[in-house]
Amino acid sequence: MTAAAPSDRKPPVSRRGISPPTDRREATLERHARAAGGFRSGTIALVGRPNVGKSTLINRLVGEKVAIVSDVPQTTRTRVIGVRRVPGAELIFVDTPGLHKPRHLLNEAMVRAARAALDEADVILFLVDVTAPLGPGDRAVLDLLRPRRAPVLLILNKVDRVEKPRVLPMIDESRSLFEFAEIFPISATRDDDFTDLLNAIVARLPEGEAAYPEDEYTDQSLRALAAEWIREPILRHTRQEVPHAVAVRIDEFIEDDEKGLVTIKATVVVEKASQKGILIGSGGAMMKRVGEESRIELERVTGRKVFLSLWVTVEEAWRQSPRALRELGYT
């Protein structure tokens, strides 16, 4: 029987290929959880300037891809939740938009989402890119963290890209600026073992019951994930103003259980006719490439064959339109 997927339907859990925990790591986490007492559950907010690796890290910590990743600043536009269950604890990670100075209503909504996540967090992970000096943007984030009671762990990310002597002075400078609970130099892309970081988080979570079923790793619906998986290759293959002016609206999402098929019709929204031309490409080559790459990800997430139809349209100044932001799920 064919039926439209309900808006709250979650993706099937696969836990494939990102960073599955080994038995040794699980045993270490279990020992730590027993020492900490009863079952613990809490929210961990990942915050920092744009493009410091928050989305990459949440994917690695959860063990499943819950957030799209690109080298374009402000890729994450809404709160993204990823859930990791370890022995004795549930960790609810919240990936937030990078904190920045808003230029549009869209950016204002992104900053509000990040601030709201800070207000709800039991633990805060403040990410810094060690390939660049601590700057005004980092210090502005620290100013937001000062009045909050949640413990803050400093995550010095991308250490694989610099020589070790450059990291140590940054640790000293960071300690002089803020009283961090702990400091972790990491590479979100290359490290395989985050046990020490997970232990530090679990030790600071409050005791409480699990908020999510054990087999659920995100609160996002398949429809919401589909929009993001379509946007990701657009960010990967376009430059300058195009990535920031693109949004994706899912017009139709139909699952056919008998055929094992998902039919998705989506509209890619841009602000200018010139951007539409870039996205379509010569003879439709760019849209074909975007469709092929996003279909692979959608089939992985849904576990089914996907028929994907994409349409590009121009909505001038949609980032400044309250109506458009509501329709696109940003407010």
Low-confidence stretches: 1-7, 13-21
Instruction: Report strand %.
Output: 15-25%
Distance between the ends: 34 Å
In one word, what is the shape? globular
**At the fourth CATH level, what is the homologous superfamily of the largest domain?**
P-loop containing nucleotide triphosphate hydrolases
Number of domains: 2
- Would you tell me the overall average pLDDT? 90
User: What is the top-level CATH class of the largest domain?
Assistant: Alpha Beta
Number of helices: 10
Helices and strands: which structural class?
A: alpha/beta
The strands making up the biggest β-sheet line up spatially as 3-4-2-5-6-7
How does the major sheet shape up?
6 strands, mixed
Q: What is the N-to-C succession of helices and strands?
A: EHEHEEHEHEHEHHEEHHEH
Radius of gyration: 20 Å
- Helix share, percent: 25-40%
CATH architectural designation of the largest domain: 3-Layer(aba) Sandwich
The third-level CATH topology of the largest domain is Rossmann fold
Question: Can you count the beta strands?
Answer: 10
Verbal overview:
This protein is an alpha/beta fold and 331 residues long. The protein folds into two domains: 10-202, 3-Layer(aba) Sandwich (Rossmann fold); 222-327, K homology (KH) domain (GMP Synthetase, Chain A, domain 3). It is 36% helix and 22% strand. It has helices spanning 23-36, 54-62, 105-120, 136-145, 164-177, 195-202, 222-237, 273-280, 285-302, 322-327, and strands spanning 2-4, 40-47, 80-86, 89-95, 123-129, 152-157, 182-185, 247-256, 261-270, 305-314. The protein has a six-stranded mixed sheet with strand order 3-4-2-5-6-7, with helices on both faces. The chain has a four-stranded mixed sheet with strand order 1-8-9-10.
